[in-house]
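RECORD TYPE: inverse folding
INPUT: structure tokens
STRUCTURE:
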């Protein structure tokens, strides 16, 4: 079934939606994106995603073609037109079409595209079985805090994981884990502390990460924001990832070494439940 997508002010069948070959998103990966999850036809943490979108745009000196209110309206209209119950909305803004030049155009006309994604995110089988991850070197650029569309290295990482019979890869820089290819990475120490890398330009400031850490603290869990090694992770009690479309998903194996008894751990399970309850209750 063809989707209705949003392109620069118009709702169109996906096969009629067109972008210029001169679009800087296409030529230079000069664009940013967000993925907001949808549960029961409602947006989870829309405000967090809208704020991070604005931050990414500001860091790249790129104009925002829509206000936050307009963006919410477009998201809702798209969900309604596509009858989306569960999945996500993908949003991309680029600096638009301009003659090919490394320098930004003086008067950019940004491109904005949104489309829906149908996914079973609440009942994902991986939430029950857990993920197997491998470690790979982090070879991305240095501004991972900006959510740009230059995702080739993460794609390569997913392919390396697939070739190794794993589900995903955790990236390692200077001996410590940065994050997963499309998610933030966590371990739970044997004495029950949740450890995840502190925010910096080295990782994406996950919207799910912020919510999950707040909920963990509200539930009296101890959170330590610091780097950890693959070896520490392999010897941890539990591990898990977070992202908008995976919520909290347990990790049960790292580079072939099973964590604990090889089954998802209780803290990851509990955090997933707490997160999903709040996500459903607060979705707009
Ligand atoms: N880290 C990376 C590299 C990502 O690509 C993503 C999501 O796409 C995340 C972390 C998780 O961010 P969020 O929770 O906002 O989806």
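DESIGNED SEQUENCE:
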């Amino acid at each position: 079934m063809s989707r209705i997508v949003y392109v620069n002010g118009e709702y169109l069948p996906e096969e009629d939606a067109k972008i210029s070959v001169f679009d800087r998103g296409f030529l230079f990966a000069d664009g940013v994106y967000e993925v907001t999850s949808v549960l029961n036809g409602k947006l989870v943490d829309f405000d967090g995603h809208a704020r991070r979108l604005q931050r990414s745009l500001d860091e790249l000196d790129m104009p925002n073609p829509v206000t936050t209110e307009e963006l919410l309206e477009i998201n809702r209209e798209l969900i309604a037109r596509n009858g989306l119950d569960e999945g996500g909305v993908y949003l991309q803004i680029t600096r638009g079409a301009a003659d090919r030049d490394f320098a930004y155009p003086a008067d950019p006309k940004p491109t904005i595209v949104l489309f829906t994604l149908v996914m079973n995110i609440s009942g994902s089988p991986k939430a029950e079985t857990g993920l197997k991850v491998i470690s790979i070197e982090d070879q991305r650029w240095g501004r991972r805090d900006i959510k740009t569309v230059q995702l080739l290295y993460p794609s390569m990482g997913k392919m390396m994981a697939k070739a190794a019979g794993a589900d995903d890869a955790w990236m390692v820089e200077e001996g410590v884990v940065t994050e997963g290819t499309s998610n933030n990475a966590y371990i739970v120490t044997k004495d029950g502390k949740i450890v995840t890398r502190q925010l910096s330009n080295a990782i994406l400031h996950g919207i799910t990460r912020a919510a999950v850490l707040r909920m963990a603290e509200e539930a009296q869990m101890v959170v330590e924001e610091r780097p950890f090694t693959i070896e520490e992770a392999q010897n941890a009690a539990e591990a898990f990832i977070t992202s908008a479309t995976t919520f909290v998903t347990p990790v049960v194996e790292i580079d072939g070494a099973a964590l604990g008894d090889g089954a998802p751990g209780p803290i990851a399970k509990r955090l997933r439940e707490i997160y999903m309850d709040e996500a459903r209750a607060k979705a707009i």
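NOTES: The first strand starts at residue 4 and ends at 7.
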